[in-house]
Structure formats: C-alpha cells, structure tokens
C-alpha cells in the first residue's frame, strides 16, 4: 500500500441512482488518507482495476444532467446490438447441425455453421466440432475469463458440483438461483432426476448463446443491476416459486458488504413475492480466511468445513499443484450446519459440534469445538487459551501465539474495529482518536487492500500467507 493511504470504504446509498458505467450503476467509495480530508468518488462496481473499466468521478464535483446522460449513453452503446432473445434464436437454429458442422468463435463469442460462415471468422480464434454435450455444458469449453480483478472465473470440479447438489437436496430445495455459479446451473438444467429448476444470474453474457432468456439473466451482483429490461420479470417470476435457495460463488476480490447488501435485496424481493418474513436459504462460497469479514456482515451464517475444489484454479484446489492443505474455499450457510452431510471418505460427523468436519480437524476439549480453519490439525495453547495453527509458536514479547517469522509489535486487528486507531466499538468515520503508530513505525491499516495483499500472497506463497491468518 502506498504511504499514507488508510483504505477505502464502500458507501451504500441508493445505488441505482448513481452514475452509470458500462457495468450499470457505479458505487460510491470513500478514500481515507493520513493527514488529509477523506474524499468520496464513484467507480465501477464490478471491476477493481481501472484498466478493465476506467470510470472515475469525484463525488464533490457537480454532476450535470447532461453528464449523467452522457454516461447512460456510454452504457447503452456498450450493450450488444442484439437482445438476448435474438441472440438465442440465432444460435437455436444451429443447435441441430451436428458436431461436424458446428463451430464456436471465441473472438466473436458466437456459434456458426462451418459450411456457411467460415469465411466470416477467418481471422478469429475458433473451436471446431461442438458436440451436443458441449452445448449443454458451455462452461466446459468457453475459455474462463481470467482477469483476476474483473469477472474472474474459477469452475467447480465434478465432485464439488455433486456435493453442492447434495447440500441443496438436504435443504429440500426445488428452485435454485445460481448467482455466479454456471456449473451448478448446467448440472441442474441438464438433470431431470434432480427435480430441481434453476435460473442463472451472471455478468458473463456469452451464456446468452446457450440459454434462453427464461434460463439465463444478465446481472451484476455488485449493484443488483439487470442488464436487459425484461429480465427482471423473469427473475421475479422465478423467485415467486416454492423452496428457493441461492447458490453464489462470487469473485473473491469482491466487497462482501456489497454482496451482502444485494443478497438482502433479493431476499426482500422474495419476501414480497411470498408475503413472508423468513430468511432466504443460501450457499455462499468464499475463502475461509474471509470468515471474520463475512460473519461481521452476515452474522447468521456458519462456515462449513467442506473444501471446495476447482478445475482451473492452481492454488484454490487440492492435488499436487494446489494448496498444501487442500483448497482454501468453503461454503457459508444460513441454515444449521448439521443439515449438510459431507463425504465419509474425508469428513466425519462430530457429535459435540453437531456438524460434519474434515478428518484432520480434531475436536479440542478445552475450546469445546473443532477449531481448524485451514484444513490442518490445530494445537491448543494454554497461555492463549485457544487453538492455533500447528506452525505457530507462543511469543513471550507479543504475549500470544504468532507465526514464527512474525515481526514483534504488529497488531492483528479485529474486523469490527476502527481502521484508523485499531480500537473496537466504532468505525473509522466516527473516530476521534489519533491514528496509531506502531513500534516498527508502520502505520496500522486494514482494509480491502490488505486483504487483497494477503490473497496475492496466497497465490505466490501459500504457506506463509496462511500463517498470517489464524
Ligand atoms: N465456481 C463457479 C463459478 C465461479 S466464478 C462454477 O463453477 O459454477 C465466478 C462467477 O461469477 C463467474 O461465472 C463470473 O462470470 C461471475 N461474475 C463475476 N463478476 C460478476 C458480477 N459482477 N456479477 C455477476 N456475476 C459475476
Ligand atoms: Zn469470429
Ligand atoms: Zn483448543
Ligand atoms: Zn499462545
Ligand atoms: Zn478509531
């Protein structure tokens, strides 16, 4: 982090009234800097890198109605020429061509008939011979978007799909809203035996070619924006059905407060449709080290011990190239953990905890729980009165257990504490205290950047990054 920067807060206002970028309404952020007044600005909801979406506007500058309109025009111009129905109708005609004639152009993002339109795609990157099976499971051949800051796509392995489907069965779900979970959508849509229905909400518009408007809705989960005018009705109709459950596997760099805000918006829409006041069941997929952030925004959630596996993520998956202790990704649920049985090959039911845990997660009699987070067996420290990672040592100077290579004096701040002074009980914007200067002269900060930093470390140095966390 650059010197003097204290981090960026999300300001949740009436998001749909904010200026538009090509990804729908932007988000109001507030940037805090040491020795300077904080400043608010609007920026893209979906892309955290300006290279992917360059929209930026200081909130204290006057926004004229012409400026607002200009931005709306840029949004409109970025929309595809054809609507979803037209795109799907065009490709629907090609579905029966047969494998030897059907091609997909990765450059134009469309299907075409080899015998008729090859000339049009001479300079393009194409895949020849698209089978019937592939058409049903487009995630198996669409190249995953890999920009780690915007729309990054990491796809479940077949065993993870199966276990997530089992979790849905355990909830007696019949209608599944897949928000950023194309493989779960594909699995449900193509398997009648499950007796489940699904609607996919995702920002990746390549799926318009393969699923009709009743099955796929182009949607941004960071601003609850529906890109096609009619699609909000498709969504409303879908959520009005019985036994709805949301499955969401968002990009891990996304702001949890925005995701939470928009899940609440979906829940409110659902409650209105049904005239009820209950909690909408949900499977929310995120790395274990985000647990404190997630629970601070979504207090009704529990983290399951199941390690979610990915086909194309070198470090969030198990196996030789993956993280030493298996994938770092978990399922967070807002229903009792005992409802989610896990495969007996790697997991067992812990009676006192009343939930399924990893075989490596040993119940601690002193903590009265299965305390491991990262997939390793934790050890109990009697001085700290808690379980810690096996590699940690109790440090006399810090008077607590720490990674062996830690710098004495650095504070590990709580999630609910002030980003400026480190004290709990108030947030940064209400802070009356002086910023804390630490022994090693570095200003204390924790914010989105810090979390990102940890994630980057996970990508390059999985072991030491894990040691930063408990
Ligand atoms: N593991 C899942 C895919 C998760 S990758 C599976 O196998 O089904 C994250 C998903 O979220 C991708 O499908 C991506 O297109 C989608 N996504 C990324 N940013 C989004 C946004 N702002 N709004 C909606 N969906 C988004
Ligand atoms: Zn092409
Ligand atoms: Zn313990
Ligand atoms: Zn200790
Ligand atoms: Zn403070």
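-> sequence recovered:
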């Amino acid at each position: 982090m650059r010197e003097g920067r204290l981090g960026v807060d999300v300001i949740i206002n009436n998001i749909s009234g904010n200026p538009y970028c090509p990804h729908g309404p932007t988000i109001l952020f507030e940037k805090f800097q040491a020795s300077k007044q904080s400043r608010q600005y609007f920026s893209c909801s979906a892309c955290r890198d300006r290279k992917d979406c360059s929209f930026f506007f200081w909130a204290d500058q006057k926004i004229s109605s012409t400026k607002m309109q200009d931005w709306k025009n840029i949004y409109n111009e970025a929309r595809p020429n054809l609507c979803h129905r037209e795109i799907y109708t065009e490709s629907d005609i090609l579905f029966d061509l047969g494998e030897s004639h059907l091609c997909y152009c990765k450059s134009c993002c469309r299907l075409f008939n080899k015998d008729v339109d090859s000339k049009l795609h001479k300079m393009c990157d194409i895949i020849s011979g698209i089978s019937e099976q592939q058409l049903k499971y487009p995630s198996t051949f669409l190249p995953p978007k890999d920009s780690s800051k915007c729309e990054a796509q990491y796809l479940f392995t077949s065993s993870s799909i199966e276990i997530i489907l089992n979790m849905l069965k355990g909830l007696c779900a019949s209608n599944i809203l897949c928000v950023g979970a194309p493989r779960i959508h594909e699995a449900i849509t193509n398997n009648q035996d499950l007796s489940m229905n699904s609607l996919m909400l995702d920002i990746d518009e390549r799926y318009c070619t393969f699923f009709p408007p009743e099955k796929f809705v182009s949607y941004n989960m960071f601003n609850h924006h529906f890109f096609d005018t009619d699609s909000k009705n498709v969504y409303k109709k879908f959520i009005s059905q019985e036994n709805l459950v949301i499955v969401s596997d968002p990009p891990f760099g996304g702001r949890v407060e925005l995701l939470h805000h928009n899940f609440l918006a979906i829940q409110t829409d659902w409650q209105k449709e049904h005239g009820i006041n209950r909690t909408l069941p949900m499977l929310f997929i995120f790395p274990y080290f985000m647990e404190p952030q997630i629970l601070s925004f979504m207090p009704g959630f529990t983290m399951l011990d199941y390690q979610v596996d990915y086909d194309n993520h070198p470090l969030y998956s198990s196996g030789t190239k993956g993280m030493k202790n298996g994938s770092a990704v978990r399922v967070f649920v807002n229903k009792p953990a005992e409802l989610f049985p896990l495969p007996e090959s790697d997991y067992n039911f812990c009676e006192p905890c009343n939930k399924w845990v990893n075989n490596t997660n040993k119940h601690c009699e002193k903590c009265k729980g299965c305390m491991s987070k990262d997939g390793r067996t934790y050890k109990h420290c009697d001085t700290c009165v808690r379980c810690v990672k096996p590699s940690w040592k109790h440090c006399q100077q810090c008077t607590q257990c720490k990674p062996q290579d830690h710098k004495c004096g650095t504070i590990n701040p709580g999630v609910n504490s002030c980003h400026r002074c480190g004290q709990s009980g108030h947030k940064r914007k209400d802070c009356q205290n002086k910023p804390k200067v630490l022994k090693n002269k570095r200003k204390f900060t924790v914010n989105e950047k810090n979390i990102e930093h940890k994630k980057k470390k996970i990508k390059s140095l999985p072991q030491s990054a894990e040691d930063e966390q408990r």
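The chain is about 25% helix and 20% strand.
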